[in-house]
Structures are given as structure tokens and as C-alpha cells.
Write a structure and sequence with these properties.
Elements lengths: L20 H4 L8 E5 L3 H11 L4 E6 L12 E4 L5 H8 L4 E4 L6 H9 L8 H8 L1 H10 L7 E4 L2 H11 L3 E5 L9 E4 L5 H7 L7 E5 L3 E11 L5 E3 L3 E6 L2 E7 L5 H16 L5 E10 L4 E7 L9 H4 L4 H10 L12 E3 L1
Parallel strand pairs: 1-2, 1-4, 2-3
Antiparallel strand pairs: 5-8, 6-7, 6-8, 9-10, 9-11, 9-13, 11-12, 12-15, 13-14
């Protein structure tokens, strides 16, 4: 447990300090190689946290100069959406996780059947990849969210407009993030042009009733292998053109709203399988209702502030969760804002 690894360690360790319980929980925690599908900025920050914990992180990413490449234990250049590549990569890892959900789920399911330790589970990734399937899943678990319906032609879209009213939010089921995959029809005449922007009905679309929210809130939730849960404080996210622009931590909302948002986030994460960090995005309405928007099964840009503002960053928390360590303290040391 105390074995050091020079590839991942950012500073020397005083072996006398290792006798302290808190040091045992942080340094030299694992000889296991953690495989990460994706080497973007989130992967880079995972590697930064891993370097302080002596965890070896191996990255699979198609870009030779991906952000995580300079900091990881090893970078395998290849597609995380190619079955053979992912299977070969997994053979070299003790635990497999993701920093992006758009991976080959069928391969992850096959790897799990072969005994590969994947977190979060492939079943969770499959649900999250399809935004419509996500809505169906959470609705079946009694979580309140905006009304939604699948559409496959103009007539079904028109019926949705008649049912929900306008403006009407039209969304793509897959590959929708950072403002991509969303289009607003303000009236029936705009349905066709909005659908065209999203690639047509054949791409897989659904309609969501417009949510008249007053604030967008997010919780980062850590879930351990033993199903323990640790929630970070509720934050407010402010978006420009559907892109997260400002994060205010903690959110300036009453405690009643914070407690309600936390309860919804816990319920959503508990309905999914596997360990890791999850981002739960929520709408706060004028009447004080909390509606679930969507969930990401990984660290999130709304949690970048945790590196400096919380006792345990979301990246360290994700590492702790997937490796099997006790979850860290997710409380804040100081209020924060990030742009």
C-alpha cells in the first residue's frame, strides 16, 4: 500500500508521516493501473489528482497531444469508440473508467462479462448516452423532470407542440452536450427548420416541454463501491448560448431548496449502477420545484472549483470511488466562483 511510483508521484514522501491515518488515505493508495477512456481536460485533471495519490493512470485517446498525455502514466493512442482497441487497452488495466460518456458501450458490456472492473457500469453509460432513454429511466424511478415525448415525423412534432405549447425544446437523443443537439421552435412554423438543424428525424429526436426555470443548479455526487454517497454543495450555473459560463458555489438559494436538490440528486445517482463521480443538472422553477435536467457519469465543468474550494476535489473523489477508497470530505473550505 505504501509502495511509491516515480511515474505518478509529484513530490517525495516522508515515510514517518505514512504512519498517520490521513496520510495512509492519500499517498501510495494503489498499485492498480487505472484505465481512462478519453484524455481531454477532465482526463488531465484526473491525472493531476492521481499524481498526488501515487495512482497510475493510463489514457486511451486518439490524439497524440491530448491534454492528459503529458501527465498520465502512459498514453495509448487509439479510439475509445473502437471495440478491438478498447479490449486490448482494458487488458492492461486493473480498473476501467471514463472521462467522456461517448464510448463503445457494447464493448464495455462484453468486458464486464469477462470480469473487467468497469466504473461506472456499462448499463449506466448506455442510459446516459441516450438523452431520451435517460428521461425514461429517471421518470420510471419517480424523479420529476420536464414532460417529454419522442418524435419521428412532422405530425408527431406538431402533436407535441399542441400538447406542450411553445416555445418547444427539440433535442437529439445522442451526442448532445455543450449546447449541441438542442433547437428551439417558437411556433409550429419553426418546427421543420429546428429539426433540420439537428439533422432530421432519422437522427433520433425527442421534444421536451419548456421549463420556465429561474435558476439552473448542479450537484456533484460521489458514489463509492459500497454505495456510500457524498454530495458536494449545490452550485448555480449560468449559461451563455447553452454553454456553462459562470459557476457560483455555493448557490444562493434557501436551505429548503438545497435540501430538495440534494435529495433529487441522490435519488438519481442511486438509480444508476457503479462507482464514480456524477454531475446532476437541475432546474429550479418559480414555485420552488426542482426538475431533473440530465446526469453526466463523470467529473464535470461545474465542479472545476472543487480543486481549490473543497477539501476533496471532484477528481480525487472520482479516483477514490472507482479504486475503492473511502470517499473524501466534499464540503467547501471557501465560497468560490469560476468563469
Amino acid at each position: 500500500m505504501r509502495k511509491q511510483n516515480s511515474c505518478c508521484q509529484s513530490s517525495s514522501i516522508n515515510h514517518e508521516d505514512l504512519s498517520r491515518k490521513d496520510e495512509l488515505l492519500v499517498h501510495g493508495v494503489s498499485d492498480t493501473i487505472l484505465g481512462v477512456l478519453g484524455g481531454g481536460q477532465l482526463g488531465r485533471m484526473l491525472c493531476q489528482a492521481a499524481s498526488q495519490m501515487a495512482i497510475k493512470v493510463m489514457i486511451l485517446d486518439p490524439l497524440e497531444s491530448c491534454p492528459a498525455s503529458a501527465l498520465c502514466y502512459q498514453h495509448v493512442v487509439g479510439s475509445f469508440d473502437d471495440s478491438a482497441t478498447v479490449q486490448n487497452f482494458a487488458k492492461r488495466c486493473g480498473v476501467l473508467t471514463v472521462e467522456i460518456e461517448h464510448v463503445d458501450v457494447a464493448t464495455l458490456e462484453k468486458l464486464e462479462q469477462q470480469g473487467v472492473d468497469c466504473h461506472p457500469k456499462a448499463s449506466t453509460i448506455r442510459i446516459i448516452q441516450d438523452k431520451y432513454l435517460q428521461k425514461v429511466h429517471f421518470s420510471r424511478h419517480g424523479i420529476i423532470l420536464p414532460d417529454f415525448v419522442e418524435i419521428n415525423n412532422f405530425d408527431s412534432a406538431k402533436r407535441a407542440g399542441d400538447l406542450f405549447g411553445y416555445p418547444l425544446m427539440i433535442k437529439g437523443k445522442r451526442l448532445a452536450y455543450d449546447g449541441r443537439g438542442n433547437a428551439v421552435a417558437h411556433n409550429e412554423e419553426e418546427i421543420s427548420s429546428s429539426v433540420a438543424v439537428l439533422g432530421g428525424y432519422g437522427c433520433g429526436l425527442y421534444v421536451e416541454k419548456w421549463a420556465p426555470f429561474v435558476k439552473e443548479l448542479t450537484l456533484i455526487v460521489g458514489r463509492g463501491r459500497n454505495n456510500s454517497i457524498s454530495c458536494y454543495p449545490v452550485v448555480e450555473t449560468i449559461h451563455n448560448d447553452n454553454i456553462c459560463h459562470i459557476v457560483k458555489a455555493p448557490a444562493d438559494v434557501p436551505w429548503k431548496i438545497k435540501d430538495l436538490a440534494t435529495d433529487v440528486a441522490k435519488k438519481a445517482v442511486n438509480s444508476l449502477d457503479g462507482a464514480g463521480v456524477f454531475s446532476v443538472e437541475l432546474f429550479l422553477t418559480k414555485d420552488g420545484q426542482i426538475l431533473l435536467n440530465e446526469v453526466a457519469p463523470r467529473p464535470h465543468n461545474s465542479g472545476h472549483h472543487t480543486i481549490e474550494s473543497c477539501f476533496t476535489s471532484q477528481y480525487e473523489q472520482h479516483l477514490r470511488a472507482v479504486i475503492g477508497l473511502p470517499l473524501g470530505d466534499s464540503s467547501m473550505k471557501t465560497p468560490a466562483a469560476i468563469m
